[in-house]
Amino acid sequence: MRGPTIIKAEDDKTKQLNKHNLMAFSGEAGDTVQFAEYIQANIQLYTMRNDTELGPNAVASFVRGELARSLRSRNPYTVNLLLGGIDPITQKPHLYWIDYLASVASVPYAAHGYAQYYCLSTLDKHHHPDISLDEGLKLLEMCTDELKRRLPIDYKGVLVKVITKDGVREQDFDNNRISIMSKRQAELSLEEEELSMSSSASKKARVEDGDLPEDEARSEALPLRRANGQDILAAAEQEGEELEEAAQDQGAESSDANIDDDDDKPAIAAPKRQSAPLEGYSDLYLDTINREILDFDFEKQCSVSLSNINVYACLVCGKYFQGRGPKSHAYFHALEVGHHVFINMGTKKVYVLPEGYEVQNKSLDDIKYVVDPHYNKEEVAKLDKEVHDAFDLAGNRYRPGFVGMNNIKANDYLNVVVQLLAHVFPIRNYFLLHDFSQPGTPQLAVRFSTLVRKLWNHKAFRSHVSPHELLQEIALRSSKRFTLTQQSDPVEFLSWFLNNLHLSLGGAKKPSKTPTSVVQAAFQGHLRIESQAITAHSDTQNARLVFTESGTINSQTTPYLILTLDLPPTPLFQSSNRESIIPQVPLTTLLNKYNGITASEKLAQRVRHRLLHPLPPYLLFHIKRFSKNRFVSERNPTIVTFPSPRSLDMSPYVEPNPDIWPHSEPILYDLVANIILDPTVAAPGAHEEAAADKGVNAAGGSSGGSGSSSSSGAGAGSEKVSWLVQLHDKAMAAENSRVQKEHAGEQRGPEWLEIQDLFVKKAESETLFTKEGYLMVWERRKVPGKANRKGKAAAK
Ligand SMILES: [Zn+2]
């Protein structure tokens, strides 16, 4: 609007931004020209650089963004704008109404300034989505007619520009003609009055409708100011914190009041309310989302305030920020860095900042899923039966459940334990399916659940995960006993973790006969310990020491989660070629510790162990390699052999109890996971080199991880070890046996996978025991009809 002062009668208040986009502006004289030229230059620069033309919605978003930024500066531009254009791809016309408060709306027609008081009612009445160019020009005449009659200042006529798919052209328009279409007779044949450029611009976009498919935004025919007002109202309600929006709201309301001034206005359909900006508007920002860098693995903690309350993740750079209201860290991040799309880590709602409205768009669902993958029972039931290929963003195939895990510094001891537990099916299924969302759930359970669900995510952006969030909680809960910077013993960690997980799931503190958590249900069994005191005295004749066993045998039953297996001592002397004669021992020999016959001496006691029925569904074997505590001692490199990862018979180690299990019937277990240690032998003083080598290896594999492990790891002194885990892919095994039935000898994929930090590789089941196993999980094989075996036996 030129205002009451006419500076120049034929002033052109439009700027052509590119071939198909035209901007009309009104407002403070200096601001308008300066801002319009700035926008024009930037849009043209974009076209030159990218050799492609921005569509009207992209231009509108850009203009709005610039205006929003200036609004928050010390010298905001006071500019009202109309943007008209044809989308170069869809060939559809668009018109955007933008005001000096940087609110934007896509509209079928629009006007700014004083002219809108006179024109909008006419436009409301006569505009329709299929309007042709000629009809549009007639409508424009009716509008200028109104202005000539009613605007109390000298009217200098309008300049009409038309945007078509061929570009922008000026349209001849007779400014002196008085339209007779108007119902009202022209009593005052005034001279032309000034029409704000905006209303002419609005016309331009509209006239394309004739030869173009109906535009959605247009067919809704919603009066812009209302929609806009409602939009802001809704946003303000949701937020309750955006002062600027309230201001905008008021501005919109006041112009709203003038809508129905014209008396011959027909009642129009109730305007559709919108709670989010029109489509297309938000699209530009959604394009800035950078999925490649998103994983949400790190602890949800504001990168500025370090608070974990009300945290949003920036979807452009992946960082976390607190809050989204004005003066919040996310808000400032949006202003300072220009990243506009944020997701609330709790509610998973996506917002555009600094404006603060919520974006609801299907295209965000994948991100919401990655934040919090979830499963239903059918999906979980299929995990171990069917192989479905999954692909990450880079298009690489991966097996859900068998993905690498970041070794942040020296947390491979934790990674292998998490991988192992994520393949103990009752544990996994519980954490995949259980809802941990209620407040007050201990973080240990929540974060472990999140990690397990990410491990099995079939829609992951990246085919590896980071245990950072869980690690932070573990470091806190264990009072820094287990951290990501210090290597630890996986078994020590596992027993700490199982106990704490058990408690955080509400398990009973006191030992109980029946399991009180999923942890106990999976692993807990009972064993009998019989002990006999041994006393030594000297023989009267030979003066030799003689041992006698006390006649009384103490017998007690204790629960266990992990069974410790002792290795036979290694030979005292070592051959010069030490590598070639690594001692071996069969697993069954180690298990004889529990046969109730083999006894061991311990603190002047002779002790015998025997497992009791019923055996747990999963057995954890800890092969005791470190002879003293932690890592300050000898490591026993003996290899534990077993003929097959399948069909380990545990029945010889269980005290017979015919009520529960028929005597001499085998109790078969199959190997599920095997944590092994990978000793990297290094000469004293060569630690750094070894560590460096490892780091290089790891870095070569992935951008996201560091694979180096700390030199203070197990066996520190002359050696360091790193941990890896071998996992059985049950679904692949099932698939393979199906395939083999049809085509003998063929395999669909490897049944055993070896995971070391980020690296996942195939492992041959025949060579599983060739490395130094440390912790094994064996799964009890389900015997068909086993559950009602007792009943059957009785029936016979
Ligand atoms: Zn960012």
TrEMBL record:
Residues 281-378 form the UBP-type domain. Keywords: Cytoplasm, Metal-binding, mRNA processing, mRNA splicing, Nucleus, Proteasome, Spliceosome, Zinc, Zinc-finger. One of its GO terms (biological process) is proteasomal protein catabolic process. Residues 248-257 have a biased composition (Low complexity). InterPro entries: Ntn_hydrolases_N, Papain-like_cys_pep_sf, Peptidase_C19_UCH, Proteasome_beta2, Proteasome_sua/b, Proteasome_suB-type, Ub_carboxyl-term_hydrolase, USP. Residues 403-781 form the USP domain. Residues 190-224, 238-274, 695-715 are annotated as: Disordered. Its main location: nucleus. It comes from the Eukaryota. Residues 238-247 have a biased composition (Acidic residues). SMART domains: ZnF_UBP. One of its GO terms (cellular component) is spliceosomal complex. Belongs to the peptidase C19 family. This is Cysteine proteinase.
